[in-house]
């Protein structure tokens, strides 16, 4: 599991514990997890997408999903995130292509060297085809 996934699960379980603390206490404490309220205005389409992803990820409300989204965005701004899978895959692809390019260059060098050796041998008159035949294959 990624660090982001484990962090999200940890935050979700802390919120659930905080929620259970609120229901079990006999006092009228409204905000046991010390979060403050913020107002967010979204376009209708954006709200529908947020509701969809909140439901798909198992959040009890869109507000919890938004709080995690803001937290994740802040961590990205602070450069505190793992490389996403696509970036890792792209980097691995670049490394593989560089390795293939190096191999191709070595093969090309070997072919050119062998070709020049053959040409030099022909200009000197050396050829295995001109050797006397001894009857063996």
What number is the mean pLDDT?
79
Round the Cα radius of gyration to an integer and report it: 34 Å
General form? rod-shaped
**First-residue to last-residue Cα separation:** 64 Å
Total DSSP helices: 4
Largest sheet, described in full? Answer: none
Number of strands: 0
Describe, in plain words, how this protein is organized in 3D.
With 137 residues, the chain is mainly alpha-helical. Among the domains are: 36-81, Arc Repressor Mutant; 82-128. It has four helices and no strands. Residues 20-27 have low confidence and may be disordered.
Layout of helices and strands:
Blueprint: H1 3-24, H2 44-57, H3 62-77, H4 85-124
Helix pairs in contact: 2-3
Question: Short description, anyone?
Answer:
The chain has 137 residues and is an all-alpha fold.
């Amino acid at each position: 599991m990624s660090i982001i996934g484990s962090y999200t699960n940890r935050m979700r379980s802390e919120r659930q514990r905080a929620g259970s603390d609120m229901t079990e206490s006999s006092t009228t404490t409204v905000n046991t997890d010390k979060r403050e309220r913020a107002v967010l205005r979204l376009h209708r389409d954006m709200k529908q997408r947020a509701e969809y992803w909140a439901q798909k990820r198992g959040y009890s409300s869109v507000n919890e999903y938004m709080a995690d989204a803001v937290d994740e965005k802040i961590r990205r701004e602070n450069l505190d995130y793992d490389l996403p899978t696509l970036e890792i895959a792209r980097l691995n692809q670049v490394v593989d292509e560089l390795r293939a390019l190096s191999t191709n260059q070595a093969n090309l060098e070997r072919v050119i060297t062998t070709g020049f050796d053959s040409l030099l041998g022909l200009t000197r008159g050396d050829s295995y085809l001109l050797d006397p035949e001894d009857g063996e294959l």
